């Protein structure tokens, strides 16, 4: 009697699908720990890169006055053929749809009622409202959820929590190739009399520092004066324009990408 051939059987189990979005830990201010607020996103595909046909950069910041320097950037990119978007571009005249707030993704992941980021926490009373943090749960509780929480079906109309920034569209135009001339400030005074050699060197160093600072700031003002209302300067691989000579990072101050490649400048934002 021939022995039966053993066949391997694989079993499948249903588990919640992880959402590939930054969670509360990644969206907390490094200084105060409060949730960061979404500031802007830039659609910036890379020509010649098949894996970056769709590419978005997302910038978040802390809204607390002492921590306004706390910024964090996230990147998301996809090839042209992917499971989320059509291969062909959308119609220029899409049919109007009813505007609604989506607080749950198709993967089943819930979003915070205050900021729209991942909301793994829930209200312990109704288990219907989701939040990214205790701070946003407290804010929503004060602005109406305390009364709505006792209802059988939660009203998904989201109140204005005064946390998100007003929404605008960033319109892109090419900067004219005008290089403003920087007029160096001439010294209009003389130091007479004899000085100690150390003091003379110190004054000379201060003068050079002031001259360099003035040149940097004058160049900044001249460049911005061409388009005073600009809020974004995008130029992958170009040089940033500095407002001051203080705290300009050196090449060794900029960490490499996790893949090992050196990072390059891509955009800067005006407040």
Give me a quick take on this structure.
It contains 2 helices and 7 strands. With 271 residues, it is of the alpha+beta class.
Give a written overview of the molecule.
The chain has two helices and seven strands. The chain has a three-stranded antiparallel sheet, with no helix packed on it. The N and C termini lie far apart (82 Å). The model is unreliable at 95-100 and 182-192 (pLDDT under 50). The protein is extended, with a radius of gyration of 27 Å. It has 271 residues and is an alpha+beta fold. The longest helix is centred in the C-terminal third of the chain and has 29 residues, at 197-225.
Quote the average pLDDT.
80
What is the tally of helical segments? 2
Main structural class: alpha+beta
Alpha-carbon distance between the termini? 82 Å
Order of adjacent strands in the largest pleated sheet: 1-2-3
Low-confidence stretches: 95-100, 182-192
Determine the fraction of residues in helical runs and give it as a percent range. Answer: 10-25%
Question: How many strands?
Answer: 7
Q: Give the biggest sheet.
A: 3 strands, antiparallel
* Secondary-structure element string: EEEEEHHEE
Protein name: Programmed cell death protein 2
Organism: Marmota marmota marmota
Keywords: Apoptosis, DNA-binding, Metal-binding, Nucleus, Ubl conjugation, Zinc, Zinc-finger
Function: May be a DNA-binding protein with a regulatory function. May play an important role in cell death and/or in regulation of cell proliferation.
């Amino acid at each position: 009697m021939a022995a039966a051939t053993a066949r391997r059987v694989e079993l499948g189990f249903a588990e919640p699908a992880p959402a590939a979005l930054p969670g509360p830990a990644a969206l907390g201010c490094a200084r105060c720990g409060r949730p960061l607020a979404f500031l802007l996103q830039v659609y910036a595909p890379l020509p010649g890169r098949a894996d970056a046909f769709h590419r978005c950069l997302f910038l978040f910041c802390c809204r607390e006055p002492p921590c306004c320097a706390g910024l964090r950037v996230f990147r998301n990119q996809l090839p042209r053929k992917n499971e989320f978007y059509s291969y062909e571009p959308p119609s220029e005249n899409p049919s109007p749809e009813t505007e609604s707030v989506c607080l749950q993704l198709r993967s089943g992941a819930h979003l915070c009622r205050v900021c729209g980021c991942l909301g793994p926490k829930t209200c312990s009373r109704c288990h219907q409202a989701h939040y990214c943090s205790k701070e946003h749960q407290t804010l929503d509780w004060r602005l109406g959820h305390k009364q709505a929480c006792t209802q059988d079906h939660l009203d998904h109309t989201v109140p204005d929590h005064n946390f998100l920034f007003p929404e605008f569209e960033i319109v892109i135009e090419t900067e004219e190739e005008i290089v403003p001339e920087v007029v160096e400030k001439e010294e209009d005074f003389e130091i007479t009399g004899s000085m100690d050699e150390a003091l003379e060197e110190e004054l000379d160093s201060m003068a050079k520092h002031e001259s360099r600072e003035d040149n940097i700031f004058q160049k900044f003002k001249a460049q911005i004066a061409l388009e005073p209302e600009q809020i974004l300067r995008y130029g992958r691989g170009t040089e940033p324009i500095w407002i001051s000579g203080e705290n300009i990072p050196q090449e060794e101050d900029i960490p490499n990408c996790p893949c090992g490649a050196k990072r390059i400048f891509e955009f800067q934002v005006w407040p």
